[in-house]
Amino acid sequence: MFPNRYRCPAMGKYQRGFLIPLSIFILVVMGILALVVARTSEQSNRSFTQELLSVQAFYAAETGAQRAMQVLFFPDATNRAAVDARCVSLNQTYNLSGIDGLNLCSAQVNCQCTYADASNCAPSDSANYSETTTRQPSFYTVTSQGRCGADTFLAERRIQAGAYLEQE
């Protein structure tokens, strides 16, 4: 009733329908190619987003370090005991969401104060700042950790800034 072959009247030859498997093969290959291109595009977008957040986290950390230096040395940078006390008590988190380019960013800042002999600063001990003691400079290490993003897309960068102050 249904013959296995079809005879083409124009050519006079029998054909077996090889175009159907060929078209299925082409569709499968094109589908796989489309999936590979879509996946590559998605990974590229994620990589770009992560790189952008990493740069923003660096700038958030830098902003936090600059604010910490301002807290340390202003309004009075001539009183070493006061600067040492501000450093010892400095442990702040700045929310930077109100700054253009740093939305969803924050910076956590702390400071470590040491003397030239590597001992920790003791601002409550007035003997460290008297005229009769050996005048050692105070060294300040401000550590700022910037964090941007949320959930899946999160970047953190940490920077350190150093300064010192000699007793006059």
Task: Give your account of this protein's structure.
By secondary structure, the chain is an alpha+beta fold. 39% of the residues lie in helices and 27% in strands. It is built from two helices and six strands. The protein has a four-stranded antiparallel beta sheet with strand order 3-4-5-6. It has a two-stranded antiparallel sheet with strand order 1-2. It is rod-shaped and about 120 Å long. The relative contact order is 0.16.
Pick out the low-confidence regions: none
Relative strand content: 25-35%
Q: Which class do the helix and strand fractions yield?
A: alpha+beta
Shape: rod-shaped
Over the alpha carbons, how many angstroms does the gyration radius reach? 34 Å
Mean pLDDT: 85
Percent range of helical residues: 25-40%
Strand arrangement, largest sheet? 3-4-5-6
Number of helices: 2
Give the number of DSSP strands.
Answer: 6
Report the span from N to C terminus.
112 Å
Order of helices and strands: EEHHEEEE
User: Strand count, sense and closure of the main sheet?
Assistant: 4 strands, antiparallel
